[in-house]
């Protein structure tokens, strides 16, 4: 019950600040998949990704003292932008630790939203050290991009909206990287759906979540060799137990399958999505037998792509 009330409270809290994003369908994609697909388009969310929901939910619950000291996070992409914009919307400072090799387009977006960037070496250790230094120096509150309950509950509101609109879905599929979106999606599918099961889609090149479900403990990756740059992070100790309990299965997809799914979304839905978003559709297409003739929600996680380096 705690999860259900927390998601509903989160939804009420963030609703004035977010878009209720559209749900798109395509008869052509339904024919290809052999199922009825409902795409929840978080690429139309403010700052272009679902991450706005979790960032806002965390930022809006800060005390006055915490607000006066600002927030800090480490991210090379969408969460950096989300925290920057969320902080700007309520008039507090946002400190963003980014790796030196983060794309300039993402650095520019953070700056445009008012975030203050601290660059570091491109390792998790360097990110954490730089973040700790900022916390010690100014007392900023740390918000983790995916391993934070307030962030997970905020993320869960995308799936909640989808189910409110289409309450007969059999499955809901979301991409998994750090695990914050899949954990939130799985909670909403379980709590608000009618016997609705949550699935994850994951690149086989960084399939730590798939392996973690099998082994029962958090696994890590030796490489980050995937086009789905938003999914190169790994699960945390807060979201993993939720994923273990509420996610039915994680489907691993090849790079070529991600690319094909991305092309299909561009061609059939006529929308801009980032590679990570295409992973969920790729998982459905790979597992056609399982999803045949079912009604399936697909969370399109974001649309922040560098148009100069599209993969096709």
Automatic annotation (TrEMBL):
<dbReference type="GO" id="GO:0030170">
    <property type="term" value="F:pyridoxal phosphate binding"/>
</dbReference>
<keyword id="KW-0663">Pyridoxal phosphate</keyword>
<feature type="domain" description="Tryptophan synthase beta chain-like PALP">
    <location>
        <begin position="14"/>
        <end position="302"/>
    </location>
</feature>
<dbReference type="GO" id="GO:0005524">
    <property type="term" value="F:ATP binding"/>
</dbReference>
<keyword id="KW-0456">Lyase</keyword>
<comment type="similarity">
    <text>Belongs to the serine/threonine dehydratase family.</text>
</comment>
<dbReference type="InterPro" id="IPR001926">
    <property type="entry name" value="TrpB-like_PALP"/>
</dbReference>
<protein>
    <submittedName>
        <fullName>Pyridoxal-phosphate dependent enzyme</fullName>
    </submittedName>
</protein>
<dbReference type="GO" id="GO:0000287">
    <property type="term" value="F:magnesium ion binding"/>
</dbReference>
<dbReference type="GO" id="GO:0018114">
    <property type="term" value="F:threonine racemase activity"/>
</dbReference>
<dbReference type="GO" id="GO:0030378">
    <property type="term" value="F:serine racemase activity"/>
</dbReference>
<dbReference type="InterPro" id="IPR036052">
    <property type="entry name" value="TrpB-like_PALP_sf"/>
</dbReference>
<dbReference type="GO" id="GO:0070179">
    <property type="term" value="P:D-serine biosynthetic process"/>
</dbReference>
<dbReference type="GO" id="GO:0003941">
    <property type="term" value="F:L-serine ammonia-lyase activity"/>
</dbReference>
<dbReference type="Pfam" id="PF00291">
    <property type="entry name" value="PALP"/>
</dbReference>
């Amino acid at each position: 019950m705690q999860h259900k009330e927390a998601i509903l409270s989160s939804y009420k809290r963030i609703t004035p600040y977010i878009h209720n994003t559209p749900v798109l369908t395509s008869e052509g994609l339904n024919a290809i998949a052999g199922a009825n697909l409902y795409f929840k388009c978080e690429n139309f969310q403010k700052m272009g990704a679902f991450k706005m929901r979790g960032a806002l939910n965390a930022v809006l619950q800060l005390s006055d003292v915490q607000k006066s000291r600002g927030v800090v996070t480490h991210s090379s992409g969408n969460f950096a932008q989300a925290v920057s914009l969320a902080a700007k919307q309520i008039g507090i400072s946002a400190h963003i630790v980014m790796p030196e090799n983060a794309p300039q387009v993402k650095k520019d977006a953070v700056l445009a939203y008012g975030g203050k960037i601290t660059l570091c070496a491109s390792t998790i250790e360097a990110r954490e050290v730089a973040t700790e230094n900022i916390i010690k120096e100014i007392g900023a509150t740390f918000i983790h991009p995916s391993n934070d309950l307030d962030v997970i509950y905020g993320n869960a509101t995308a799936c909640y909206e989808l189910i409110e609109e289409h309450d007969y879905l059999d499955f809901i599929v979301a991409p998994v990287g750090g695990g914050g979106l899949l954990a939130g999606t799985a909670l909403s599918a379980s709590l608000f759906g009618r016997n609705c099961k949550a699935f994850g889609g994951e690149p086989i090149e960084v399939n730590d979540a798939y392996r973690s479900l099998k082994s029962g403990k958090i696994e890590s990756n030796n490489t980050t060799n995937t086009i789905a740059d938003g999914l190169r992070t790994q699960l945390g100790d807060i979201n993993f137990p939720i994923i273990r309990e509420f996610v039915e299965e994680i489907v691993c997809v090849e790079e070529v399958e991600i690319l094909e799914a991305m092309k299909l979304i561009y061609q059939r839905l006529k929308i801009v999505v980032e590679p990570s978003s295409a992973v969920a559709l790729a998982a459905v297409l790979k597992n056609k037998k399982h999803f045949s003739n079912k009604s399936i929600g697909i969370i399109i996680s974001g649309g922040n792509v560098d148009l100069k380096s599209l993969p096709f």
